[in-house]
């Protein structure tokens, strides 16, 4: 079990191979079993494939070009990273009206759900990157509107998923838990 956590990696390059519907459903099934406060089940999943993915790419390009008008290399580099992505799942979390605590708890629950999808994906030979910045643009308006999310939903992650291109990844570096733990 510990090895599964140690070996989990972010994958940014994918083979041009479709992800089977049955595998996508297993990712979603894994997600909905995540813990969540008061059973609010605050998540929603927007699955983008084929035509929707094409529209997403066009939107991402428009967004990046507006955002970084003097950085065409950055725009092209970012676009390249999503050109061979066969599947994107945008995950949202419910904003609780007038209850900041519940809104945060919802975000924590949705983060747990994403982690479940990640590990489930790896067990199905799929790789994933959880994007928020750049082409992930979860903190900006247009993606929210494009997927048709409601006003009380906040985007948490743009999950780019597919079969990994096999290549050596940079070493996984982490600070020891010893330096991150206070035994109170
Ligand atoms: C909340 C969150 C947001 C992230 N946003 C991005 C992103 O916008 N672009 C990206 O390339 N990677 C993103 N990542 C992936 C991290 O960069 C990656 O997890 C980190 O480099 C560690 O690599 P590892 O997952 O292989 O251990 C994000 C990860 C998390 C948890």
Description of the structure:
The protein is of the alpha+beta class and 184 residues long. The protein is built from 6 helices and 4 strands. The protein has a 4-stranded antiparallel β-sheet. The longest helix has 24 residues, at 100-123. The chain is globular and about 50 Å long. The model has no long low-confidence stretch (mean pLDDT 96). Bound molecules: flavin mononucleotide (FMN). Flavin mononucleotide binds at residues 9-10, 129-134, 136, 172.
Question: What would you say about this model in short?
Answer:
This protein is α+β, with helices and mostly antiparallel strands and 184 residues long.
Keywords summarizing the entry:
alpha+beta, 4-stranded antiparallel beta sheet, globular, binds flavin mononucleotide
Describe the secondary-structure layout.
Layout: H1 2-7, H2 21-31, E1 43-48, H3 50-67, H4 72-83, E2 87-94, H5 100-123, E3 127-131, H6 141-147, E4 153-162
Antiparallel strand pairs: 1-2, 2-4, 3-4
Helix pairs in contact: 2-5, 3-4
Bound molecules: flavin mononucleotide
* Gap between N and C termini: 27 Å
Number of strands: 4
Report the sheet-strand fraction.
15-25%
Biggest pleated sheet? 4 strands, antiparallel
Q: Return Rg in Å.
A: 17 Å
